[in-house]
Specification:
61 residues, mainly alpha, 2 helices, 0% strand, flat
Length: 61
């Protein structure tokens, strides 16, 4: 890879980042609360599944 290709890739990356920042917006308070609730529920569910797997493993062996 020569220097021109690397600079081209870097420029492309920076332009793509700029486009993403322009398109995104700050969530409203209500949207943020919903995201926190859903994320927390997902973490709890994953934790419970892991706990149940370990509990079943302990009971079997």
């Amino acid at each position: 890879m020569n220097i021109n290709e690397q600079l081209g890739r870097l420029k492309s990356f920076v332009l793509e980042c700029k486009r993403v920042f322009i398109v995104t917006k700050k969530p409203t308070k209500e949207e943020f609360k919903t995201i926190v609730k859903v994320s927390g529920l997902g973490m709890i569910l994953i934790g419970l599944v892991g706990f149940l797997i370990i509990l079943i493993k302990q009971l079997i062996f």
